[in-house]
Amino acid sequence: MTTIIIDDNKIARTTMKQLATQIDDLQVLGDFSNAMEGYNFLQKHQVDLLLLDIEMPGMTGIELTKNLGADKAVIIFTTSKREYAVEAFELSVADYILKPITPVRFLQAIDKAREIIESKKTEIQSDNDEFIFFRDSNIVRRIRFDEILYAEAMGDYVKLYTPQKFYAIHTRLVEVEKRLPQHQFIRVHRSYIVAVSKIDTIQDGALVLHGKSVPVADAYRSSLNKRMNIL
Hints:
Order of helices and strands: EHEHEHEHEHEEEEEEEHEEEEEH
C-alpha cells in the first residue's frame, strides 16, 4: 500500500511516519503540512491511503476529502477532536483516530484500510442468469448470485457481502439493483438490498442474514412482508 500524510503538526507527521515505516507493506510517498500541498500531489500520483488531519489552516481535511471526488484514496482521519466523527464517517472513511496516536490504534486503522483496499473493485462488468462479473484492477472476477447475502451503499462504493467476505465495487446501488435478479433480491432500505432466501429472522425492525443485521426502512416494510408471505 502507498500512503501520504497530511497534517499541519510536524510532531504528528513525524509520529505517523515512524509508525508507518514499521509496517512492511506500507510505503510513505510523502508528508505535507497543508491540504493544498496534498491535493496537488494527488493530482499527479496514485495513492492507496491518506492519513489526513481534519483541522488545518486553509482547506480542512473534510473539505479536501469532498474535493477529491469519487476516485479518492481510502482515508483515515487523524484528529484531536471528537466532534467531527459523525461528519467524517458520512464520507465513508476507513477510520477516525484520536490523537495522540498509539501504535495499537494505528495498526487497527491500517488493518481496516488494508481490507477495503484489497477488496475494492472498480466496476461491475457483465452478468447473466447465475452470476455477475466485476473488474479488480486487470482481473475480472465472478460471484454467483446465490453467494450474495446483501448489498450495502457506502459513499462512492457498494459492498457486496457473502458469508466469507465483502467486495467493494466502485458504483452506485441503483446500478447493482438493475443487475441483481428481482426474484432473488429486494430493497429494504435506501442503502440496502438483500437476498430474500438468505433472511434468517426479522427482529426489532432489522433483518438477520448469516448473523449480520440489516435495517429495514418503514417505506419498504410492506413490500417486504408481502414478498416473504408473512402470516
